[in-house]
Design goal:
Number of strands: 16
Catalytic activity: beta-D-fructose 1,6-bisphosphate + H2O = beta-D-fructose 6-phosphate + phosphate
Bound molecules: 6-O-phosphono-alpha-D-fructofuranose
Pathway: Carbohydrate biosynthesis
EC number: 3.1.3.11
InterPro entries: FBPase_C_dom, FBPase_class-1, FBPase_N, FBPtase, Fructose_bisphosphatase_AS
Shape: globular
Main location: cytoplasm
Number of helices: 7
Oligomer: single chain
Structural class: alpha+beta
Strand order of the largest sheet: 4-3-5-6-7-8-9-10
Length: 339
């Protein structure tokens, strides 16, 4: 109970980062990301009071109407990342072009982020989240788009912050497992609550998560996989929030599979590689799960092997427990093997 909260030994995010990297610049970068998450959480919490709901009257690069909180959260992240002097290139869902940090403020990290993913849920107070991926710049000189158009397996840090009933940050440092931090608003610190998070060993709860409204447009193997989930006297449960952070967080903790396949409307899928697919794939794999594109450009790809050619490139996503992702991919293999 609350009395058990340690009054002396605060296991904060910054303490975790210091213990897991000797790189001061990475420590500073994670502090800037945490600050932006806290400020965004605050904005989401006060949105109704401060009239931050509704449209900002502009559109983002994907043609979506931008909402005030979209714009505000993006400004918060860009400001925090520019001024921490640890970044060279920023890619945001809300900015068409990469932001090249001026040489006087440049550091060695490149961050791709969706500042407020799931924004269609904002006005009805359903949970949203920030998703981010961090690369270390390997090309000397000023930042360019080539510093961030990299394979997922080059990521050094991946994470998301969920603005739900609690504000929770989940991060994965390359090779150091998945860790959960809950924001304690009374002291403004992310407290380390769970170390080395893993999918349930048996694949966990039988849950599939997909927007079945699109099922008529899916490719046939995906339709057959979901029909399989719904068959028999103990069908899978359907859980779908429509906010990737919420759907992936539940899948990570409870098990099951999250599917956003390619369809006739979006033949390349809807979710973006750099700041949705890759960060979630790194976390899912580090937790013992599987992250695949499903059938994409005629082949089934491990998500982390993709090499995006554009900063807003999209891909299909099938991720979750090994049990359930492999069940879905089995329908693709059968289809591919069919004469
Ligand atoms: P649909 C939100 O707009 C988002 O990018 C992800 O957060 C979410 O998983 C997906 O799109 C929802 O898409 O087509 O089901 O509304």
């Amino acid at each position: 109970n609350s009395d058990d909260v340690d009054q002396v030994n605060y296991k904060t995010l910054s303490r975790f980062v210091m213990a897991n990297t000797a790189d001061q610049e990475l420590t500073i970068l994670m502090g800037a990301i945490a600050l932006a998450c806290k400020a965004t959480a605050r904005a989401c919490r006060k949105a109704g009071i401060a009239n931050l709901f509704g449209l900002a009257g502009e559109q983002n690069t994907s043609g979506d109407d931008q909402k005030k909180l979209d714009v505000l959260s993006n400004d918060i992240f860009v400001n925090a990342l520019l001024n921490c002097h640890a970044c060279a290139v920023l890619v945001s869902e809300e900015n068409e072009d990469p932001i090249i940090v001026p040489p006087s403020m440049q550091g060695k990290y490149c961050v791709a982020f969706d500042p407020l993913d799931g924004s269609s849920n904002i006005d009805c107070n359903v949970s949203t989240g920030t998703i981010f991926g961090v690369y270390e710049k390997t090309i000397p000189g000023p930042g360019t788009v080539d510093d961030i158009l990299r394979k997922g397996k080059d990521l050094v840090v991946a994470g998301y912050c969920m603005y739900g009933a609690a504000t929770e940050l989940v991060i994965c440092f390359q090779g150091r497992g998945v860790h959960r931090f809950a924001l304690d608003p009374s002291i403004g610190e992310f407290i380390h609550t769970h170390a080395n998070v893993k999918f349930p060993a048996d694949g966990g709860k039988k849950i599939y998560s997909a927007n079945e409204g699109n099922s008529g447009l899916w490719d046939e193997p995906c339709q057959r996989a979901v029909a399989h989930f719904k068959s028999g006297d103990k069908p899978y449960a359907l859980r779908y929030v429509g906010s990737m952070v919420s759907d992936v967080h539940r899948t990570l903790l409870y098990g099951g599979v999250f599917i956003y396949p390619a369809d006739k409307k979006s033949p390349g899928g809807k979710l973006r590689v750099l700041y949705e697919g890759f960060p979630m794939a790194m976390i899912v794999e580090a937790a013992g799960g599987v992250a695949s594109t499903g059938l994409f450009n005629g082949k089934i790809h491990r998500m982390m092997d993709l090499e995006p050619k554009g900063v807003h490139e999209r891909c299909p996503v099938i991720l979750g427990s090994e049990r359930d992702v492999n069940l879905v991919l089995g329908f693709y293999d059968t289809a591919a093997a069919a004469p």
